[in-house]
Amino acid sequence: MRPDSDFVQEAMRRAAKGLFALGDVFYGRWPGPKILIYHQVTTTPRRQLDIDPETFKDHIDFLMQHGQVVSLDTMLADPRRGEAHEDYVLTFDDGFKGLYTHAFPVMRDRGLEFTLYITSKMVDTASTGGDDEMLTWDQVNEMAASGLMTVGAHTHTHPDLRDLSESAVGEEIRLSNESIEKRTGTRPRHFAYPKGYWSNTAEPAIRAAYESAVLGAGSPITDTSDFHRLGRVAVQRADGNLFFRWKVKHGLRLEETVRSRLKGYSNPSAATEGT
Questions:
Q1: Which residues contact 217 (CB under 8 A, 6 or more apart)?
Q2: Domains of the chain, CATH where assigned
Q3: pLDDT average, residue stretch 4-18
Q4: Secondary structure of 111-147 in the HEC alphabet?
Q5: What pLDDT shows up at residue 83?
Q6: Which DSSP category does 78 fall into?
Q7: Which residues contact residue 112 at a Cβ distance below 8 angstroms, ignoring those fewer than 6 apart?
Q8: Burial degree of 166 (CB within 10 A; 0-12, 13-18, 19+)
Q9: What's the rounded mean pLDDT across residues 222-246?
Q10: Considering only CA atoms, which of 1, 5, 13, 76 is closest in space to residue 243?
Q11: How far apart are CA 154 and CA 176, in angstroms?
């Protein structure tokens, strides 16, 4: 049972989401495909980025009933194909063990493709034990061998790229790509910015090294979107099922706008739509 303070905080988060959802009414339906961000799927969720296995399964069932789960490459090939507003891309950041233990069996049984953005040093130093630990490379390769998983890069040490020099960014990219290629035999073609924060200093090197790059929150994806500034939808524990369903239809865009402003972060993807 959660401590009382944790329960109160969770209730307050959900109440705030309800108010933000009202604000989304003015935005209307969120067009285009949605790239969803998951981190840890665990039986002992503690952080907002932790989702329990049953909730994850409910999310997948909902997506399959109300649209289609497609690979990142399929989405990039034609963001507006058919009823693209009901296309969903599953992505996982970092490389937590719970992806292999809890999420992968659900996706494998349904034949669903997904992308894992690996923080290579975290996986290089993986230990054994509970769900909060990292994948091993053997587990990464097993999932890749299924034909369902695309391996992407998430830097080597997961720094905030806004704080790094051009040379330091280059080293992060080099170490990450070399580690992933050495362990999997495949050089990553896609990238996720650590913490979801875009960096003007890092962008040129990322554009040169990868076919696409994803951020945290961002604007709807269209056929004119910049594929190196793609926004995603962050899935949080407080979303539960109710606000998850709202998010994949409307984005909870007001919530993300307020969160970004409180953190002093300006997302660049809105400025590139339609260009």
A1: 196, 231, 232, 233, 234, 253, 256, 259, 260, 267
A2: 4-266 (3.20.20.370)
A3: 69
A4: CCCEEEEECHHHHHCCCCCCCCCECCHHHHHHHHHCC
A5: 61
A6: -
A7: 60, 64, 69, 90, 148
A8: exposed
A9: 91
A10: 13
A11: 8
Helices (H), ranges, the chain? 4-24, 53-66, 72-77, 97-98, 104-110, 120-124, 137-145, 166-184, 203-209, 242-250, 253-262, 269-272
Q: Are 115 and 149 spatial neighbours (Cβ–Cβ below 8 Å)?
A: yes
| Contact in structure between 246 and 23 (CB atoms under 8 Å) | no
pTM of the model: 0.89
> Nearest CA to 134 among 173, 178, 101, 107?
101
In the prediction, which pLDDT does 152 show? 98
In sequence order, the 6+-apart residues with CB closer than 8 A to the CB of 14 are: 238, 240, 243
Task: Please give the Cα distance from 15 to 152 (Å, whole number).
Answer: 35
Residue count (the chain): 275
Q: Can you read off the two tokens belonging to residue 250?
A: 């409307």
Mean pLDDT of 46-67: 95
Residue entry with tokens 């994806």: 221
Using a pLDDT cut of 90, give the percent of the chain over it.
64
The structure tokens listed for 193 are: 């910015």
* Residue with token string 């993807």: 269
Tokens representing 251 are 């984005």
